[in-house]
DNA sequence: GAGACGGCGTGACGAAAGTCACAGCGGCGC
DNA sequence: GCGCCGCTGTGACTTTCGTCACGCCGTCTC
């Protein structure tokens, strides 16, 4: 799992810190708290006071909203090198979403004061935040578009495309991230598990994917985008 | 309409520029192009090359996505003092949404190079952008939550609350912005005009609003939030 | 190996929302 | 004043989705 090209510290690949020297990175790292997480661990809850800035060292974290009756809508997944929860750090408000680990791993946590100090010491950090925010905004607009315009089958198709395991590349036969459950897809698509099962059946009928032994494979890389 | 407290130039109330002196503001204004708009005018289209940063001087602008079959989803309305289309200016990508005027007014347009110059000359501008982006992200997350969790009647109730005419204050009998059509509400709620008509009927039945002569009034300020 | 648990497949049903169709009304322009 | 157009109100029907209720299977634990 350890990347051999990683120069020093656990986050040379984090956009925020990639411009720093190894020395500076070490000093930044000193301000972070480290935490290991196991699947299901809740890192922070929406509405509570700012939990600080998080950086994923390894593993996978989901950011989601919960409805009064318990339904979950995943807003985004964060993997190694991704950071999250910038918004409350910068505007001082409560956490906008809840974060929970999906796969075991480690995260770094920078308290709000620590981040504001970093911002003072490394002005380039501010520019990086703007870039990150811009990308988040595009992502959220795309999610709104998805929820508003597309029906469930199309949303599931898009989710499968985005969950393609990067190790296997794109193309026929590519597999989806190990063990994506139907419930997880449902939380991303904003629907129920049963409806996802039916959507997958429909995609299988359209020869877009093959579901075998619980794993999903893309059979025709051209068909899936057409359906989404 | 003109604010008597406005010191100089048309945008002392724009968050970006409120920290500047009158002199600086004048110099900034010199870099903007001015444009009057009439209802229906399209300012820029999603997917096209960055149209620059816009500031609303007066009037009302809607930002929306269009689906392949012509349905519209309004992402946000922008009124006097609001700015929009920052994202492509800062990340260099295409416009994420389409913008069109809803009410007649005027906008200022800063080209991308002009904004990048401003950013260089006035570093505080960068911090302001971060604040604006944070607020946009919160707004979009709330929109996702709305689309994913609430059904149409609840969404309409929330839209009415947000469209309260600020001049009339909050409370019983407050009116909604002059002449909000059902089609406009439908575009915000991500549904069709007919469904909005029925949702309004339901809200009327719950004694939350009164619809008379095409205008919507809040009858009981306590009921509406409860339904949303 | 027995049971508990979580994920999956599917049928049946009801609720919500989208669609079509059409009629009335009011304002605006010629 | 007349006609056109856009907004509204509403009935009827269809589609999509959400939900309930199962049964099946594989894995993990004791």
Oligomer: homodimer
Q: Rg of chain A, please?
A: 19 Å
CATH class of the largest domain in chain A: Mainly Beta
Order of helices and strands of chain A: HEEEEEHEHHHHHEEH
The dominant shape of chain A is: elongated
Output the number of helix runs of chain A: 8
Counted up, domains of chain A total: 2
Tell me the number of strands of chain A: 8
Task: Indicate the proportion of strand residues of chain A.
Answer: 15-25%
Q: State the major sheet of chain A.
A: 6 strands, antiparallel
What structural class should be given to the helix and strand makeup of chain A? alpha+beta
Name the CATH superfamily assignment of the largest domain in chain A.
Jelly Rolls
Name the biggest interface. A-B, 34 and 34 residues
CATH topology of the largest domain in chain A: Jelly Rolls
Low-pLDDT runs of 5+ residues of chain A are: 1-8
How far do the termini of chain A sit from each other? 33 Å
Overall pLDDT of chain A, averaged?
87
Helix content of chain A: 25-40%
The CATH architecture of the largest domain in chain A: Sandwich
Layout of strands and helices, then pairs:
2 copies of one chain form a homodimer.
Chain A: H1 22-29, E1 33-37, E2 42-44, E3 53-66, E4 72-78, E5 83-84, H2 86-91, E6 98-110, H3 112-121, H4 124-149, H5 152-162, H6 182-189, H7 193-205, E7 209-212, E8 215-218, H8 223-227
Antiparallel strand pairs in A: 1-6, 2-6, 3-4, 3-5, 3-6, 7-8
Helix pairs in contact in A: 5-6, 5-7, 6-7
Chain A binds a DNA duplex (30 and 30 nucleotides) through residues 151-152, 181-183, 191-195, 197-198, 201, 214.
């Amino acid at each position: 799992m350890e990347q051999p090209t990683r120069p020093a510290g656990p986050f040379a690949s984090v956009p925020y810190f990639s411009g720093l020297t190894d020395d500076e990175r070490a000093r930044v790292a000193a301000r972070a708290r480290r935490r290991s997480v196991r699947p299901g661990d809740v890192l922070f809850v929406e509405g509570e006071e700012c939990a600080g800035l998080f950086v994923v060292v390894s593993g996978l974290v989901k950011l989601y909203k919960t409805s009064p009756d318990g339904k979950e809508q995943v807003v985004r997944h964060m993997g190694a090198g991704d950071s999250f929860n910038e918004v409350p750090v910068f505007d001082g408000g409560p956490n906008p979403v809840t974060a929970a680990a999906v796969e075991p791993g480690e995260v770094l946590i920078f308290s709000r004061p620590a981040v504001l100090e970093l911002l003072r010491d490394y002005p380039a950090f501010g520019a990086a935040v703007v870039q990150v925010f811009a990308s988040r905004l595009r992502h959220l607009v795309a999610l709104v578009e998805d929820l508003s315009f597309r029906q469930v089958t199309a949303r599931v198709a898009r989710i499968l495309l985005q969950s393609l395991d990067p190790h296997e590349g794109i193309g026929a036969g590519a597999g989806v991230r190990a063990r994506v459950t139907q419930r997880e897809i449902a939380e991303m698509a904003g629907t129920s598990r049963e409806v996802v099962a039916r959507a997958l059946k429909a995609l299988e009928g359209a020869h877009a994917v093959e579901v075998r032994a619980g794993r999903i494979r893309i059979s025709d890389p051209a068909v899936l985008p057409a359906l989404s």
